[in-house]
Amino acid sequence: MASLNVGNLGEYLREQRRTAQLSLRQLADAAGVSNPYLSQIERGLRKPSAEVLQQVAKALRISAETLYVRAGILDEKEREELETRAVILADPSINERQKQVLLQIYDSFRKENAAEAAAAAAQAAQAARTAEADQAGATGAAEASGITETPAGALAAAAERPVDASDA
């Protein structure tokens, strides 16, 4: 009954548990989940909820967002954004007002960059459509006039034809 990245999640959890030098039972107790359930998660047989992942992350003292990414609940980009926000909010060297201002600036940069990326993508799509239309127009015009070869082919054919004195 494995799904998405559950096997990868289980392997990662087992590795983190061993690094923390905890038995399966100790981690289950610390996280508030049953020993068999945690075992099934580690073996990739169960996909835990975000709440269970948060409990396990807290017990292992690791980022819950990392577990969310491994479980397929959160994508990498979202995790990076959440971690950036968490670091800003956890910084004891700046006050709450400064943290809020910094987060507002961060959000404005992200929105600006997203808008620029969207505009660049739209421009590239428009250029591709224009190129396709130009190609279709050239092909349609050639077919309408009875020309069956491409412009490059017509030039090559003209270059191979012998020059007749009456052409001049």
Fold and architecture overview:
With 168 residues, this protein is mainly alpha-helical. It has helices spanning 6-19, 24-31, 35-42, 50-60, 64-71, 76-90, 96-144, 151-160. The chain contains eight helices and no strands.
Query: What structural class do helix, strand and pairing data support?
Result: mainly alpha
Q: How many helices?
A: 8
The pLDDT mean sits at 82
Strand content: under 5%
Major β-sheet annotation: none
Distance between the termini: 83 Å
List SSEs in N-to-C order. HHHHHHHH
Q: Which regions contain 5 or more consecutive residues with pLDDT less than 50?
A: 1-5
Shape assignment: flat
Share of helical residues? over 70%
Number of strands: 0
The radius of gyration is 31 Å
Précis, in short:
The chain has helices at residues 6-19, 24-31, 35-42, 50-60, 64-71, 76-90, 96-144, 151-160.
Tell me the layout of helices and strands.
Elements lengths: L5 H14 L4 H8 L3 H8 L7 H11 L3 H8 L4 H15 L5 H49 L6 H10 L8
How would you describe this structure in keywords?
168 residues; mainly alpha; disordered N terminus
